[in-house]
Design a protein that fits this description.
Elements (H helix, E strand, L loop, with lengths): L3 E10 L2 E11 L3 E6 L6 H8 L7 E6 L2 E2 L4 H4 L2 E4 L11 H12 L3 H7 L15 H11 L7 E5 L7 H14 L4 E5 L3 H7 L2 E6 L2 E7 L8 E7 L11 E3 L2 E6 L2 H13 L4 E6 L5 H4 L3
Parallel strand pairs: 3-8, 3-9, 6-7, 7-8
Antiparallel strand pairs: 1-2, 1-4, 4-5, 9-10, 11-13, 11-14, 12-13
Length: 282
């Protein structure tokens, strides 16, 4: 696959339009993080891209194919809903095997890469929310696709499993397109290369995450000794000396000054995430 293109895409439910004239072209295999406040239209956008929703107007094209009208193109797309949509009374193995029977795929491979061996013979209804999410994520790894749409894939899972899922997605993104929505801003910043922001159903930002700038930085500095006189403008909060600077260069200069004066720094923590401003409703 060479590109995914949205052309003046508008879509919604019934007569209510939720997303409005979104145009976007993705040409580089990577992880694209989708951010926006609740109700912004993120799920509607995913459902429109994968062909579940018919657009009110505009198109979604995967190379030369219209995704809504082309069954061949839709087979190249994997969509993970934020809901755990698997048959409740089937065992984990039978549920995955059911989907493999429809779309093809290797159930044993999924069980292995997501460490589902201890769950394979349990009914889906008996699993915890985190376990259900792990199994649901397994659906998208049954066979290879060109485009992966994941709506909060790591919600309700423990940190270890979350890291494993992010690792799998990072590997996929070397030659596949991965669109990934998350409420975890630190995770989004860690895993994503590009940022897509929608607010009130409209595209408001699209660029590399590394190009996101913040107006100021709050940094927490933990030390073995008292540095209050070395850093008189800092506030002591939960064991950290908190200082506000205007750019990363000032962070380096502040640390250098503290060390030269005998401060023994054991931890430096960024307290704000520059993605936060995109996530907030204004």
């Amino acid at each position: 696959m060479q590109q995914l293109e949205l052309r003046d895409l508008s879509a919604g439910y019934g007569v209510e339009e939720v997303i409005h004239r979104i145009s976007l072209k993705l040409t580089q295999p990577s992880i694209y993080v989708l951010l926006g406040p609740n109700g912004a239209g993120k799920t509607t956008l995913f459902r429109s891209i994968c062909g579940i929703l018919r657009p009110f107007s505009g198109q979604v094209r995967l190379d030369e194919f219209d995704l809504f009208s082309s069954k061949e193109a839709r087979r190249k797309v994997a969509y993970l809903s934020h809901l755990n949509a698997l048959p409740e009374e089937m065992t984990v193995y039978n549920a995955l095997n059911y989907y493999a029977g429809i779309e093809g795929g290797d159930v044993e491979h999924v069980i292995d890469v997501l460490s589902l061996g201890d769950l394979r013979d349990k009914k889906f209804s008996s699993l915890s929310q985190g376990q259900k999410k792990r199994v649901s994520v397994g659906k998208i790894f049954l066979r290879e696709r060109d485009l992966y749409l994941l709506d909060e894939p790591t919600s309700n899972v423990d940190p270890k499993v979350s890291r494993e899922i992010r690792g799998l997605l990072t590997e996929l993104s070397k030659d596949k397109f991965v669109l990934y929505s998350s409420h975890n801003l630190y995770e989004a910043r860690e895993i994503g290369t590009y940022l897509i922001v929608i607010k009130n159903g409209e595209l408001t930002y699209f660029d590399k995450i590394e190009n996101v700038k913040t107006k100021q930085y709050r940094v927490g500095i933990k030390t073995l000794n008292d540095i209050s006189k070395m850093l008189p403008q800092a506030r002591l909060e939960n064991g950290y000396y908190v200082v506000t600077v205007q750019n990363p260069q000032e962070v380096a200069e502040t640390v250098d000054s503290i060390v030269k004066q005998g401060g023994k720094i054991v931890e430096l923590r960024e307290l704000d995430n520059p993605l936060q401003e995109f996530f907030e409703e204004r």
